[in-house]
Write a structure and sequence with these properties.
The chain is an alpha/beta fold and about 525 residues long. Among the domains are: about 5-260, TIM Barrel (Alpha-Beta Barrel); about 395-450, Double Stranded RNA Binding Domain. It is about 40% helix and about 20% strand. The chain contains 18 helices and 16 strands. The strands form four sheets. The chain has an eight-stranded parallel beta barrel with strand order 1-2-3-4-5-6-7-8, surrounded by eight helices. Strands 11-12-13 form a three-stranded antiparallel sheet, with helices on one face. The longest helix has 21 residues, at about 500-520. It is elongated, with a radius of gyration of 29 Å.
Length: about 525
Amino acid sequence: MQVKLFDTTLRDGEQSEGISFTVSDKIKIAKLLDEMGIHYLEGGWPGSNPKAVDFFNAMKSVKLKRAKMVAFGSTKRHGNKASDDVNLRAIVDSGVRVACIFGKAWDFHVTHALKISLEDNLELITDSIRFLKENMDEVFFDAEHFFDGYKKNPEYAIKALRAAEAGGVDVLVLADTNGGTLTHEVEEIIRVVKTKVNTPLGIHAHNDSELAVANSLIAVHNGAVQVQGTINGYGERAGNANLCSIIPSLKLKMNINCMTDEELRTLTEVSRHISEIANLPHNNHLAYVGKSAFAHKGGIHVSAINKHSETYEHIKPELVGNEQRVLVSELSGVSNLKYKAEKIGINLDDKDPAVKELLKDIKELEKIGYQFEEGEASFELMLKRATGMHKRFFDLVSFRVINDRYAKDDYHLVEATVKLMINDEIIHTAGEGAGPVGALDHALRKAIESKFPEIKTMHLVDYRVRVLNSTDGTDAKVRVIIESQDDYETWGTVGVSANIIEASWFALIDSIEYKLLKERSK
């Protein structure tokens, strides 16, 4: 069975709250999805706005390997000839050879939204598709609100599909536009629809009931040959069907070869890259591609996966370009420590008292608020110090942060002074910044750059603070996570204190220590 993947991230995905792609963004995404093996890329509605027109014009000079660009639109307006309809003409003039148009399959929408007769709506569908088929290679019909329409008036919903067939449509895409149809309903309805029409079926599911992926898969199980969705499930309201879950489920679970093994291995990278382009944090808990999708925390789980990964993993993570991770926490056992140590080249003896003492220390630190899941560099430093593989490059003597605010002219200055001991030498410097962490960072760098010039290549890329015990009010402890980056990798460090500046300092010095350890061990 052959199933074609239809991506609508550039249109439906952009309707997600907080997303607005530039033309340049859309071109980058189109290239990524083409490289990954997506069959159809819906670029947007060329008749709707200037940006869509600019995108389609720009794509004329972009050579795609395999994907076919698709122009989206609606059936013609009532009273127009199809050949004179502005939106249909824009689709034809877009420069692409594939169109996907939507039309009403729910009688309620015809009479209350379009305010035309049911027969007139069928005529709109047939004429619009016939015109597009005369001018394009392929035309798909998105039967909007099909499942809701079928449940209210099955006879008319089928008539809408047959009207599209009469126009020569290539695929009838059944849309669960409101996202409220349950999986067993999708299956029952598709089984009936297959007996009423001859054209291949597709599925376009929304996620308002958290069933978009399940509904898409059951549609394929019952014969759908086209699956529409978005990367990471982006879309209006609760989102669209998530292709990052659908694709591996089709290929690895249902044995439908919708892309090559090599293309599948790029899935996680593409998912995260598009999150970056969308300027949204990547959801760690996404199935298959999330950072936590193959993360193990409980000691019993880790002990088992060390023997065989299938004990707690439904697929091998590398098949989708992801990786197995073992987290260190208060739930950890010696197995977690050994696993993490082996990853960084340390062989631990679980009978060594130092190992048990280290595990005890970790659990105590997590009890007061430390979390090493996002601060793995801090954990590596702790492990190497405990095993005698690392000693600090510098020691703190003191630091001070002064926040000056002058209300008269709205002048604001944060100054930090740092006194360090490096090789028995006291170094005392000051730095300024927009905030206390920036000021500390500048002062610290001044103090050590002459001794350790390699830190010039690193910089902070993220800073997060979480209040741990909010019932304590302003005396609450906070956890600070700092993410740092150089030319080769990104790493996270953690600090905890009732003093936010001290917590930031702990995370900051760990970040620099990790960089120096990495450079000096090359």
